[in-house]
Hints:
It contains 6 helices and 2 strands. The chain is mostly helical. It folds into 2 domains: 11-70, Orthogonal Bundle (Arc Repressor Mutant, subunit A); 90-126, no CATH class. A two-stranded antiparallel sheet has the order 1-2. Helix 2 (28-34) packs across helix 3. Residues 1-6 have low confidence and may be disordered.
Amino acid sequence: MAKPLDKGLSRRERQIMDILYRRGRATSSEVLAEMPDPPTYSAVRAMLRLLEEKKHVAHEEEGLRYVYRPTVSREQARKSALKHLLGTFFDGSATQAVAALLDLPDANLSPRDLDRLARLIDQARKEGR
């Protein structure tokens, strides 16, 4: 499950992936039922085929239906999405991204959250990252 994510995902594709990560596996009908403001059934099937071409999902045949599952771990997908976000909006700078997050008025960071962030920064310093 450690395949690299080489292509970005559309909003709808991310919604489908979120559903598959949450459920573990699902048919196109089950995906459709959980999508907000759902598109047509045919559109969901087309997006699942595209996700399969991009190597994000695979299917198994169960009787007459296909059951889809993610082929990339959620952690791998998260890292890929963050890398894309950093490159697109923050010139590749983690510092700029963290600063933007800290500047959000509704970030609601507790003292415990801030302590954890400080520990992570100290750990990164020690490891030379």
